[in-house]
Give the backbone structure.
Amino acid sequence: MSRLSEGGLIDRSKPLAFSFDGKAMRGYAGDTLASALLANDVRLVGRSFKYHRPRGIFSSGSEEPNALVELRDGARREPNSRATVVELYDGLSAASQNRWPSLDFDIQSVNGLLGPLLGAGFYYKTFMWPAALWEKLYEPLIRRAAGLGRAAEAPDPDSYDRSFAFCDLLVIGGGAAGLMAALTAGRSGARVILADEDFRFGGRILAERAEIDDAPSLAFVERAVAELAALPNVRLLPRTTVFGAYDGGTFGALERVADHLPLPPAFTPRQRYWKIVAKRSLLCAGAIDRPIVFGGNDRPGVMSAQALRTYAVRYAANPGKRAVVFANNGYAWSAAFDAAEAGVDIAAIVDVRPEAPPIQLERAKRRGVRVIQGGQVVATSGRLLSSVTVRSATGEEKIAAEVLAISGGSSPNVGLTSHFGGKPVYRADIAGFVPGACPPGMRVAGAARGDYSLARCLAAGAAEAAEAVSELGFSAYATPVPQARDNAITVTPFWHVPGSRGPAFVDLQNDVTAKDITIAHTEGFRAVELLKRYTTLGMATDQGRTSNVTGLAMMAVLTGQDVGATGTTLFRPPYTPVALGAIAGHHRGKDFRATRPTPTHDWARAQGAVFVEAGLWLRAQYFPRPGETDWLETVNREVTATRTGVGLIDVSTFGKIDIQGPDAGAFLDRVYINTFSTLPVGRARYGVMLREDGIVMDDGTTSRLGERHYLMTTTTANAAKVYQHLEFCLQVLWPELDVQMASVSEQWAQISIAGPQARAVLEQVVDGLDVSNAALPYMGVAQGTVLSGVAARIFRVSFSGELGYEIAVPARQGRRLAEALMAAGAPFGITPYGTEALGVMRIEKGHVSGNELNGQTSARDLGLGRMASTKKDYVGRVLSQRPAFLEEGRVSFVGFKPVNPGDRLRAGAHFLPHGRSGTTANDEGYMTSVAFSPLLGHWIGLGLIARGTERIGESVRAYDPVRGGDIPVEICHPAFVDPEGERLRV
Amino acid sequence: MRSRYSVFSLLANALTGQKGWTPAWRDAAPKPAYDVIVVGGGGHGLATAYYLAKEHGIRNVAVLEKGHIGSGNAGRNTTIIRSNYLLPGNEPFYEWSMKLWEGLEQDVNYNSMVSQRGVLNLYHSDAQRDAYARRGNSMRMAGADSELLDEAGVRAYAPFLNFDDARFPIKGGLLQRRGGTARHDAVVWGYARAADKLGVDIVQNCEVTGFIRENGVVVGVETTRGPIRAGKVGLAVAGSTSRLTRLLDLRLPIESHVLTAFVSEGLKPLVPGVVTFGAGHFYVSQSDKGGLVFGGDIDGYNSYAQRGNLPVVEDVCEAGMALMPQIGRLRVLRSWGGIMDMSMDGSPIIDVGPLPGLYLNCGWNYGGFKATPASGWCFAWTLAKDAPHALNAAYRLDRFRTGHMIDEKGVGAQPNLH
């Protein structure tokens, strides 16, 4: 065990069992998986992407490029989990990934030997011959070798929540700056949210041995968190990553509610996706250590100086027996001293600078730490790091060490600041990029803007928060800034050790080497985006947080430009990867979208209905009876029963729009191609409306219920679209019209009864209303009550071609009405029917429906052109007169019947003249709808074919190669049943 | 003389410390004048220049790019290639594009990883099935491949989809096996390298700031690198088209909208081809590197900002989970926005005019990537011959006046619905 005997923010009274690659281990509450692995002497944890090189733990945070594992098992398997941010829990199981057969022995590490062949972009230059082998051989091999972890194979069993929050100030990051900011804003009375990706607030303080107000800095953290927790206007969100900045002050955040537990407790989501709307935001996300690139810099044991300090101080885990520190800045020296005090054996500090600041030298001397100034690591050795070769003025020296802690300076965590496209700006004095233009309302404090000193972090957090809340009208509470002493830290830019030996990795995860950057430079891929895309630098799961700056700085050296002018790639959301399931929340499976049952849904289910999705609606498709062998038999029965007796169907799904006002008639005249202002009260009329571009948008019957009161019906599919269109017309085109409207689709249940016996049934449910042919003729509308006092509207309309009524009652009375109609119709053999039978009857009748109103047809195409009024203007009129709409060869709407009566028709078949080949040039149209007509005893179809109305009686091919169909069909009139409409009027 | 890429060039460089490589294309400085200027160094612009040089012998050509090549939509799409269109104005064009894809790598000597692993469009209702049958038949009639799968067929091809508790059950799908993906950046680089080899100047960091007009004729452009004259100026700038034509006081029937695309962390192979969801707007494939590449609808409002907002992010993830509930614990690694030049009928414009000396290539909606080869090929033809080829004869600008719209989705002149 490499657990240091004392110290650390781990709870030694709470041991936790876990396993890695099946091996049982122990850690403590407060550990991450990474710290526990190190404490268990595990140094090899993963394999790299391309060369499958052995890799260890590089960092102690979310920027980890190396230590990716498959966490958990089975349906909960989470590939690519960063061991450095996985909070240890009892029973945790993790496995290494992207290796075969084992982590220790990975066959594909042979790729490393081929390294010279596999330089940047090698795959763009080969695998081209013969062409067919790409899909058959090369690509499958590449795909199998690529990828990282394995996705689970079963649906994610956990649930995810979605929450909204609103605040005055969102503080992102709960380190020194963030805590001071939250305290200042909280004390000022502002609504504050403080989010931190860590499970413990404190940030760097947790890993540094520092003093605040002459006491251990941890005491400050504990005090601050306790006070914040007690403030009612402050919400603390630990384990919460603010992953993206969006318009309107909106932030996306992910709270890991139960990831630190073996399983989410009952009624608890695994994660919660927050949408936080903040008037102001303050980014206090800190900074990360950046590596220096040199040959052999990827051996397990090479880690950032910050990581060494964190593992030693925060987790009391010793990453290795002896450590060498290699750096170009003073921060790494402090890290070395902290680690040494925690119990790590520091063999030497190697600093590239010829002369380190005296105060640092003094501190090293006091601790007895050896210092090599002007030194560079030029090689490493050991499969797991065993020694480090250092070159200095005195020559080369090999130093035994299991840990090489490196720091090339700090990179501020500027990610969120560039989500609106703001480019980070290079600051030469700290050799790092700091935020440029931030999203509106965002400020930055502390290390995230390059202020690394603890004292300045504390002060800046307070000051920025005070300014932010002042802008919002709060009088900022003058929070006294606690005192911290730390030394000025200097950094000398240094990116790459020239002449070092062995492959030198810039991007550890994607195995992008210094050589690759040279290749990219040679081949002209010099702009940062081209560099990235050509070499894959920064395209791994860490998004290049530890590699981008170094890589582009190395390119800058090659091009002779300065780093600032070279620029950096932009960070895009999310800041760290976010689980898809969390964003989707509860919208999965059957809950993907709302389900709209009709008012008679339960009744229909009790009748044994089979349901079908119609948009969000579930509609009864057909009502099978015992003994019926297939749906067609059922549908034939339903159609026959309706045509010979009476049938019943719920048509509540049609859109219903209530339109009122003095200008209601004029309004309808403008949206329909035909006229409604002249419609008498108590009558209904079939109407067709166009889109602005002259194509048919929708059809339906609209009734006049009063002088200033109309009720429009739309098709089920277009209910929302038509309503939206009408709103646009009213609000934007003709605001001067005095019209009010509302969708009442949900308010009314509407049941249609159709068939020769429909009136006899209706008479039994109305409360004394005269529904005789004289009193309520075809297209008549009556209002009254049914079922002893239920308000009702009765429309004598028909889709089936039979005598029909639609009876509308308040939605809650729908089931009662259906049951009453069934009881009343029992003597006549009333038969409930579904959408299939409805479809058959409308095809028999030759009505257009959704298949014909496909957004590509004009009123003229559909044979509805004669309805268009020439006496008024209406939406779509002008554009429907364009030349293309009037061309001779346009399709028209006709019927089709098989020449051989036994042939089955298929919608989607194209029409060809006989004797012509199946090419685009010979395409004359297509079949839109088909049905088996029980009345006629054969299949019938509707369709659109060039000059169709002139070709009645002609035979053409119905060509359907995707289903192997090619049959002769005869063009006929679209109304197969009762073309004169006599049945409607009896 | 630049070397030809092959396994031998790789071997030679492996042995010589990678010292033999040369720039893939010259970083050209602009000359004072060209026969043809193509504005826009994306896939379409570079392909146009390549085919101008190769097919029409017009080599005094410059491609002007405001940033670096491939930094617009060419580098921001979901890399899907397919020719599964419905309407006669579209399908022959896209099938020609597919045929060009099939020979592209050998033609330009660059592995663009054109991978015909299949594109499957799922259907969830009988009406959708029939609409796909109509489409699949159209494809066959234009010489493309298509297969109408039933549910069992989809299960065999994509067993990882949610067949068990779907809100909108999968009833089948329309499969184009020749569809698939290509490595988008490599398409750009391949065309750039091949065009450069034929003498085309690729001028980067050269933003067009105005047009030079004489007697109403466009005779060149003003740029951040000075004025450049040209016999013909072709625009191939996708979402920036309206910004450029504003300089000419031209309003085109296109709107710019933002579309967000996503990539997940790398995974071992999970999704073989491209799958599109028929009951929501969602499409997914898996890159050779292992990331799931997916996307959905545009945000719906006009925008030049290359970033979207959370409602669409949610919509996309919801559809993804509805289709593949096993991806719940996989993580979105990165999302980014591209600016789509959405036209009034959802189809593109490749045409001469509307001003003398000016040529348009725009209106790609969110389908521009797959069109890259044919778009370049047809635009080159149109530039060279001053008339459209039969393949882009339907993509005239005046179709909105004459009514010859090519509205695949049938949603009309509402660009945010295409």
